[in-house]
Amino acid sequence: MIGTTGVVTIAVGGGDSLGEVELSLAGGTERFLAVAAVPIVVDATVLVVEVRPGRIVVVEPWVPMPA
Question: What InterPro entries does this protein map onto (predicted)?
Answer without folding.
Answer: NA-bd_OB-fold
